[in-house]
Amino acid sequence: MEHTNKIALVTGGSRGLGKDMALRLAEKGHDVIITYQSRKDAADAVIADLEAKGAKAIALQLDMAQFHSLDEFVSRLTATLQEKWGHARFDFLVNNAGMGATIPFEQVTEADFDHFLNVHFKSVYFLTQKLLPLLQDGGRIINISSGSTRICVPGYSVYASMKGAIETLTQYLAKDLGSRGITVNVVAPGPIETDFNNAAIRSNPERKAMMAKTIALGRVGNAEDIGGIIAFLCSQDSGWITGQRIEASGGLFL
Ligand SMILES: NC(=O)c1ccc[n+]([C@@H]2O[C@H](COP(=O)([O-])OP(=O)(O)OC[C@H]3O[C@@H](n4cnc5c(N)ncnc54)[C@H](OP(=O)(O)O)[C@@H]3O)[C@@H](O)[C@H]2O)c1
């Protein structure tokens, strides 16, 4: 694969969807910076896989729950770009990092609310703002939402509300950044079998089988169903798509 000299930043690239996104971007010839929250071991293994594909790659720690750590992250990223690539900019921002929990509406505490707010919306909003000077003109921003903004999932009121906010933000960013040639889209995966929400799908075969019946293609998704879509959205071929919500759910509740 020919090297493109383009760099993607994938938050939450140590496992699950983010890992597959990073691998598929590397297969297209891009270099990749991934972030992890606490699983440095998993992130290091992804870096080895990325390097085996010929990409320059590095993992940086980032906790989206620690809103006040974002400036320090941006400084580390800036230094990393200079040290490893010899310039100040990167090309693709994939806001993927996140966690899930099933909490009935009546039981959501202010602490739960603030945690989801920080990780899934506030830190995504301001990290993107802080990274704009580092993002190349003509670049890409891809946010990750969820099928749960369209279909109500029990216990997902707080999670899905933040994802809904990200979908609205996507449209505004697409409008604002069009003058720089930056496209901004949001990908909304349906149920995907990862470690997400305490591996809610993998650890519950009955629930998994029930979900499969609600999906046109007859199964829940795997991380490998999503990474290629991100790689496509980072390609020249997708350059005329912006401000869109692209659901990747195998046809959930059609
Ligand atoms: N799986 C699904 O069914 C599904 C469906 C729709 C949307 N999504 C969305 O897809 C994204 C990825 O989910 P996934 O299924 O890949 O989950 P996952 O397998 O649990 O991986 C989560 C990733 O995010 C990182 N992360 C978790 N909390 C973080 C925090 N506070 N700050 C920074 N990074 C953090 C993790 O880092 P460590 O490895 O260090 O813990 C890991 O890299 C999330 O935004 C999720 O909402 C998932």
Salient structural properties:
single chain, 254 residues, alpha/beta, Rossmann fold, seven-stranded parallel β-sheet, 8 helices, 41% helix, globular, binds NADP nicotinamide-adenine-dinucleotide phosphate
How many distinct beta strands?
A: 7
Number of domains: 1
Strand content: 15-25%
Distance between the termini: 38 Å
- What does the overall shape look like? globular
Low-confidence stretches: none
**CATH topology descriptor:** Rossmann fold
Average pLDDT value? Answer: 98
Q: CATH class, please?
A: Alpha Beta
Roughly how many Å is the radius of gyration? 17 Å
Individual helix count: 8
Give the fraction of residues assigned to helices.
40-55%
Structure description:
The chain has 254 residues and is an alpha/beta fold. The chain has a single domain, classed as NAD(P)-binding Rossmann-like Domain (Rossmann fold). Helices cover 41% and strands 17% of the residues. The chain contains 8 helices and 7 strands, in the order βαβαβαβαβαβαααβ. The protein has helices at residues 16-27, 40-52, 70-85, 110-131, 157-177, 196-199, 205-213, 227-233; strands at residues 7-10, 31-36, 57-61, 90-95, 135-144, 183-189, 245-248. The chain has a 7-stranded parallel sheet, sandwiched between helices. α5 (157-177) links the parallel β5 (135-144) and β6. NADP nicotinamide-adenine-dinucleotide phosphate (NAP) binds at residues 12-18, 36-39, 42, 62-65, 96-100, 119, 144, 146, 189, 191-192, 194-196. NADP nicotinamide-adenine-dinucleotide phosphate is lined by residues 12-18, 36-39, 42, 62-65, 96-100, 119, 144, 146, 189, 191-192, 194-196.
